[in-house]
Amino acid sequence: MYILVVILKAINEVALIALISQGVLYVLAGSKRENNFVYFILKTMTMPVMKFARLVTPRVVLDQHIGWVALFILLLAEVLLIAAKISLHLQATATG
Questions:
Q1: Is the N end or the C end of the chain the one with fewer CB atoms within 10 Å?
Q2: Quick check: 12 and 74 in contact, CB under 8 A?
Q3: Is residue 50 within 8 Å of residue 20, measured between CB atoms?
Q4: Is pTM beyond 0.85 here?
Q5: Residues contacting 2, CB < 8 A, separation 6+
Q6: Model confidence band, residue 45 (pLDDT cutoffs 50, 70, 90)
Q7: pLDDT tens digits, residue range 63-80?
Q8: Res. 24: pLDDT tops 90
Q9: How far apart are CA 15 and CA 20, in angstroms?
């Protein structure tokens, strides 16, 4: 179980870094970001998270805010996975 949590945490961290990098490149590249190869790769990596964020949010949330929802989801998942990892580690090292 511990290994599963570690693997999920690693996948979540990669998605989180990709989403943050995409946001930084969004600001830096401006209107030319769609022609940027690195932005395309980051957009492809974060597409599942963005689709999930669109799925769980109501239609009144604008598409331009879905990135913030995706960031919140990934940060929440990171906190939960850290708590699970700590809990599993404490259970494994408990004596008695």
A1: C
A2: yes
A3: no
A4: yes
A5: 85, 88, 89, 92
A6: very high
A7: 889 999 999 999 999 999
A8: yes
A9: 9
